Amino acid sequence: MDHRPIFLSGLVFLLLTLSSIVLLGGNFIPAVILASALFAGVLIYCLRPSVDQVCLVLLAVAVVLEPPAANPYYDHTPITEILGALFFNSIKKISGIPLPFNIYEMISFLCAGAILVNFRLRKNPVNIVTIIVAASIPLVAVFSILVGQLKGNQLGLAITQIRSFPILPTWVILGFYLARKRENLFHILNIVKWGSLFKAVYAILFFSISMGGTLGDQEYLIDHMSSYILGLAMVIVAAEVVFDRRAEIHKILINMIFFFIYLIPFIINDRRTAMLGLVFIVLSFPALIEKNLLKKLLVPLLMILPFVIMTIVGVVGFAFVSNSAGAQLIRSYISAAPEQNLSYRSIENFNLFQGVRQSPILGQGFGSKYPIYMELPDISHAFELFDAIPHNHVFYIWVFAGPIGIGGLSLVTLIPLISAVRLSGHSSHGIIPIIGFVTFSALVLWLVYVFFDMGLLAIRPMTMTAILIGATFALYRNYVQTGRGGLRTKLFFKL
Asked: Is there a contact between 178 and 470 (Cβ–Cβ < 8 Å)?
């Protein structure tokens, strides 16, 4: 392959950027976009990557990089944030045309569009249930925007409020497409595992060296959504050990090491939303695996249980006799000081619930701010749209889209959850039950974020959840409904 066009396009990229800084007084965004397009075009022409490879690279971007808006590491700017700006910062407009999406979303849309029109899908078409589930939230958004326009709401604000919704159907389609090749399923899991390992090691080193082993006044270490990613990675390495009955001892040891490397920054990051999701997953675990496997795991689990209890008792005891930073962190989970006043979230949820009562049938439509019955603290310095986009996105979609919005959210969660549960109880070993359990876990983690922390606008968790939903639908149809899975019962719907 001739590499000269690649180097030439890189040189053009540099010249365009430098010339724009000189001629436009530092306004180099148009030149960067132009040069990036040229560079990407030549690169694609020379390397000719498949849609599969592009999708997997985008997944790696979602796992490893962080958007600057997430403010990872506070004052420290890691390379992952610098690169994340290229993919996740919105393009406000090009040539005067408003464009509320970012590069990551636009490439995702192009890949999904190419797949939908690609002739290869005629042999394995995207079925009606997959399309309904994928499109439920965007259809709800369109309906609520129309309701809002009839009420005189602002269209620009409405688009801002639902701007990340299209990511969900896009990546469900991409996941469904990728699952046609079994090796892609392993690629998806490995990308999350190795990308999270990089993220965890970087966080541990930064915490130990640059921060001196303490958070100080900082609320978190990395960013909120990185806890979702690390939690999902822990689930993957655990599922590979539990569900693969032929796993060799060295693989079990490696996965255990990975698990504890993920766990350290997960705990330091102190995101109780993700921790709550993991608790739900652990409690659900016995009901999700095949009976014979559960019986085999019962004895080792009972053997481990006393050591787990002793460890918990020891950690709690240490927390109450030591004044170290680690002990203070542990105490914050066990005996948090009671709040003297209503928290911001409590006031926010009260206002949202009153908004539901105000427009109980159709909702108030996107493009407006939710009603304020109890005054909120002004946090506009940190988040300008605090009174238009709340944290609780169950109430959020209920206020703006009414019962139809809740129905759409239920569709996109309940059917994938049922399918994932059926796959995780699959009688075979290997990738099928692993994908089922990981998808169930991803959905649970994401739903907790939806309820507590703006999950419907979180591009990275939505990407990982949606790609697993699509893969689960493809596996469910191929291995369960066809009878190859050995399951004796069927769901009430067909995929």
From this structure: yes
